[in-house]
Amino acid sequence: MRFMMLPTRPQLLCAALLCSLLFGGPFGCLPAGEAPAEDRLNADAYSELDSGLDSAPDSAPDSANNPPPFHPTDLDGLALLFDADSEASLEMTSQGLVYQWRDLSGGDNHAYQAIDRHMPVYRAGSQAGRTALEFDGSYLTTSEVLQLRATSQGYTVFAVASNTVADDADGTEGRGGILLGNYRRPHSNFSVELHHARKLRHWWDRREEFGDPADENRGDAIFDTPRPDQDTFAILTFFLDASEHTVGAAVDGEFAESLPDDGFVYEVQRPLRIGADYREQNLPTAWNGSIGEILVYHRLLSESEMEEVHQYLSLKWEIPLVE
Prior knowledge:
- The protein has helices at residues 9-23, 37-59, 303-317; strands at 78-83, 90-92, 98-101, 111-112, 121-127, 130-136, 140-142, 155-163, 175-182, 190-196, 200-205, 218-222, 234-241, 246-251, 254-255, 259-260, 272-274, 288-297.
- It is of the alpha+beta class.
- It has a single domain, classed as Jelly Rolls (Sandwich).
- The protein is globular.
C-alpha cells in the first residue's frame, strides 16, 4: 500500500503566496467560478456595447424636439453679414478705429474706410457683453456692387443698433440718421434710416435713369412702428415686397402696416454705405449711435424666415421681442 503525503503548513503558505502573485484577491485565490479581473472587464465592456446597440434607436436625438441651432447663413439669398462681435470680422488701428468690417456671408463684400476721422470706433461689451461699432459721422463703404433687385425678388434688411439722438430741446423731433444707404452721386437712390421721432423710414428713387434730383422723382415711407428707445439696442427690420409693390418695417419683431412702394423701380446696383449715404459731409443725415450686426438678403424673406432671424438676433444680443 502507498501513502500520499499531505503538504506541510509552510508548503501551503508558499502556494497561497504564489496564487496571490498570479491572480490577486484575498489569499491570492479567486472565488470559485469567478473569472480574472481582466476577463471580467472585457466581458462588462462587451455587455455595455451590446446594450448600447440594442438601445440606440430609443436614445437617438429627436430632431423634431432638438433641431440644430439656426444661423442666418442657413437661409438662401444672404448678400451681406456684418457681425461686430466676430473677431475675424474687424481690422482696426491701435486706437480702435475700424477701417475694415469683413462680410461673413461668404460673398467677401467687405466694407472699408480710409479716412481716420470717418472710421467707426470699436466698443467692446456694448450689448450683452458683445462688441458693437460706434458711428458718429463715420461710415464704411462696401467694396463691391450689391445686387438688390427691386424689380424681381425684393430684399430684406436686419440690423442690431442703438441710437443716441433725442428729441430736440425745443420740442421738435430729432432725426436718428441713415443706417444703410446706397452710394451714387449726385444723390443716393436707396436708404433705410431712423427719421424724425426715431421712426423707421425707407427712402428710394423712383427713376430708372438718373436725371435732375427733383422731389417728384423720389419716394419714401415712414412707418408707424414703436420708437426704439434712446441709447437702447433694438432689432430693426426693413423689407421690399416687389411682387406686391409694398415696403415694410419692424422693431423688435413688431411689424408696422406695409405701405405702397410708390413706384420704386430702380435696381440698387451700387456699393452700400453703413452709417451714411453719399453725403459724407452732411453729418445730420449720418447714423448717430452703435451698430452690432447687419444682415442683408437679396430677396423678400417669408414671415417664418423673418421670425427665425428675429429669434436668433434676440437670443444672441439679449434683446426681448415684442410679444
